[in-house]
């Protein structure tokens, strides 16, 4: 069940990026208070995710530096979304493409990469939450072996955060209700989206609270990585972000993957909007902070993709019956926020359609 149109395929050298819709939902908080959460639906980008922006920016950056010419091989480590967009753009631009993924990468994402002609290598899960290190080792091996291979390096390229400053955040602020948000919640993996959005918000909306959303067991915002038996793709990382600095966020929300999945199930059931796990995590974190702080009434969430390709969200997060179970052991404040999401509803009167 979703009211979100399928993302169009890109067809040319450029991804055909577009301004994505900003869809508000209301969350009753009790005591007559309501938070409005504005969902920036990046599943509407070509290739179905926010990573269309990143892929195009990474390739443009290398081309501007003269590091790519047709026939060379683009290599990248990806949890899925970046790989789909890179594979499509490499096909359009005449580059070979090798993508290193891991067992949590959805099969349908791998199918899309290979349909674009990319070679896909899946590394084995590494204990201790360090599978990303195995992916990066595989990238480095290819770079050593193949003199034509070029790494887009989403973990360090300045093009990654920059595109979220110049486009993602600029669109959010342009479309904001009365030109402002009280807070914005962004989930992290490489941290490129958060760092880029934060740069823009600090400059243009300095009063907005920035909520960095990470997974329990992730090291993206610091701390040691740990096993995550139920791990949502694209949420958190086994390595610390190379982009996020302490000034980029006011609050750090650490959420369990299963709680983010439960949030997705509630939002889908109550509003018809299908969100990927990292987007569900952002909405859950926004709800926690809105419940804590009455000053937070208009909140934005970057929603990197939809839930369609994630089996764990379409049939695991809610037992397949559309009725989400309460994940056992959630901290009290998270349980309370999940309970509040049982009341989430669409606010179609204020929908902001996509604008380029
Ligand atoms: C679904 C999803 N959400 C969030 C992110 C995180 O984005 P970033 O790497 O900019 O932190 C990714 C990155 O791959 C993703 O695929």
TrEMBL record:
User: Which residues lie within the region annotated Disordered?
Assistant: 1-23
List the Gene Ontology MF annotations in alphabetical order: transferase activity
Q: Which SUPFAM superfamilies match?
A: Tryptophan synthase beta subunit-like PLP-dependent enzymes
Q: Pfam families, alphabetically? A: PALP (PF00291)
Q: Where is the Tryptophan synthase beta chain-like PALP domain?
A: 16-297
State the top-level EC class.
Answer: transferase
Q: Give UniProt keywords alphabetically.
A: Pyridoxal phosphate, Transferase
Please indicate which superkingdom the organism of origin belongs to.
Bacteria
Q: Which EC number(s) does the record attach to this protein?
A: 2.5.1.-
- Transferase among keywords: yes
Q: Which cofactor does it need?
A: pyridoxal 5'-phosphate
Question: Could you identify this protein by its name?
Answer: Cysteine synthase family protein
Organism of derivation: Streptomyces lonegramiae
């Amino acid at each position: 069940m979703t009211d979100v149109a399928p993302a169009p395929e890109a067809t040319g050298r450029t991804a055909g990026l577009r301004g994505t819709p900003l869809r508000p939902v209301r969350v009753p908080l009790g005591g007559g208070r309501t938070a409005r959460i504005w969902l920036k639906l990046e599943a509407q980008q070509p290739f179905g995710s926010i990573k269309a922006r990143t892929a195009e920016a990474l390739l443009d950056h290398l081309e501007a530096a003269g590091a790519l010419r047709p026939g060379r091989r683009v290599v990248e480590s990806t949890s899925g979304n970046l790989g789909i967009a890179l594979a499509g753009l490499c096909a359009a631009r005449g580059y070979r493409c090798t993508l290193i993924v891991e067992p949590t990468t959805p099969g349908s994402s791998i199918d899309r990469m290979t349909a674009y002609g990319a070679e896909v290598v899946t590394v084995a899960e590494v204990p201790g939450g360090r599978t990303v290190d195995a992916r990066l080792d595989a990238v480095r091996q290819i770079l050593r072996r193949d003199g034509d291979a070029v790494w887009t390096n989403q973990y360090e390229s300045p093009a990654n955060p920059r595109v979220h400053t110049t486009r993602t955040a600029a669109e959010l602020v342009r479309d904001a209700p009365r030109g402002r948000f009280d807070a914005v919640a962004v989930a992290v993996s490489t941290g490129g989206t958060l760092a880029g959005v934060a740069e823009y918000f600090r400059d243009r909306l300095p009063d907005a609270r920035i909520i960095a959303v990470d997974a329990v067991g992730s090291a993206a915002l610091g701390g040691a990585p740990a096993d995550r038996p139920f791990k949502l793709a694209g949420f958190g990382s086994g390595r610390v972000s190379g982009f996020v600095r302490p000034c980029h966020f006011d609050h750090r929300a650490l959420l369990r993957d299963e709680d983010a999945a439960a949030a997705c199930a509630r939002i889908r059931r109550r509003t018809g909007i299908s969100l990927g796990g990292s987007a569900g995590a952002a909405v859950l974190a926004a709800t926690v902070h809105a419940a804590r702080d009455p000053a937070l009434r208009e909140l934005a969430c970057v929603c990197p993709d939809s839930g369609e390709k994630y089996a764990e969200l379409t049939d695991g997060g809610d037992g397949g019956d559309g009725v989400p179970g309460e994940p056992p052991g959630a901290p009290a404040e998270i349980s309370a926020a999940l309970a509040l999401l049982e009341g989430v509803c669409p606010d179609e009167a204020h929908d902001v359609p996509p604008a380029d």
